[in-house]
């Protein structure tokens, strides 16, 4: 995904290459942080901290892993550290979702409610399950890449995803029946 020459130029101290690289990676990092933390300002803070760490530690990047995998590991670890420090419930803001509106108003409302239910259900998952769900289904990483990012065995990643899907199904079923939301 990222040009190896761009990465090497950034490692060699090319300021323009570093800026380009950080701009290219900022959105995927923010997306991961937002879905893990589920709070816009905290996700922006974590993303900023991750970009600073990437900037200061670019020389430690070795081409053994893809650059995005290396960067995602940094942002994921920062999110996990934040969870450990807070040990309390994560903020859930009402966030305006922008969805295409090809159909009727009713269809748009249903889509927004479904997206909100899914977002809320993901936020209810235990941290380890939420992390693998975000990396797999939101960021579209392979099982192997997730294992590498989280430094977990591949079978543990698969197990976490299996259990997380079951929990999500149950939570969404409860929401459908009008169950209490956390």
Structure characterization notes:
The protein contains eight helices and no strands. It has helices spanning 4-11, 15-37, 40-57, 67-86, 105-124, 127-138, 143-150, 154-176. The chain is elongated.
Outline of the structure:
The chain is built from eight helices and no strands.
Beta fraction: under 5%
Give the overall shape, derived from the CA principal axes. Answer: elongated
What is the string of helix and strand elements? Answer: HHHHHHHH
* Sheet with the most strands, sense and barrel status: none
What is the rounded distance between the termini? 38 Å
- Taking all residues together, what is the mean pLDDT? 82
**C-alpha-based Rg, rounded:** 18 Å
Which secondary-structure class do the elements indicate? mainly alpha
Uncertain runs are 88-102
Index terms:
about 180 residues, mainly alpha, about 0% strand, elongated
List the helices and strands and how they pair.
Elements: H1 4-11, H2 15-37, H3 40-57, H4 67-86, H5 105-124, H6 127-138, H7 143-150, H8 154-176
């Amino acid at each position: 995904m990222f040009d190896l020459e761009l990465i090497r130029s950034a490692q060699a101290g090319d300021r323009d290459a570093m800026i380009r690289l950080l701009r290219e990676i900022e959105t995927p990092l923010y997306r991961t942080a937002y879905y893990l933390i589920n709070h816009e300002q905290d996700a922006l803070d974590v993303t900023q901290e991750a970009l600073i760490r990437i900037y200061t530690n670019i020389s430690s990047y070795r081409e053994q892993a893809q650059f995005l995998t290396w960067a995602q590991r940094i942002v994921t670890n920062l999110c996990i550290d934040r969870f450990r420090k807070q040990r309390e419930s994560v903020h859930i803001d009402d966030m305006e979702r922008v969805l295409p509106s090809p159909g009727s108003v009713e269809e748009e409302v249903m889509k927004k409610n479904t997206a909100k239910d899914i977002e809320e259900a993901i936020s209810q998952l235990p941290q380890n399950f939420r992390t693998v769900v975000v990396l797999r289904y939101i960021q579209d990483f392979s099982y192997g890449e997730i294992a590498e990012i989280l430094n977990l065995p591949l079978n543990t990643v698969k197990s976490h995803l299996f259990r997380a899907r079951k929990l999500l199904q149950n939570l969404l079923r409860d929401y459908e029946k009008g169950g209490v939301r956390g």
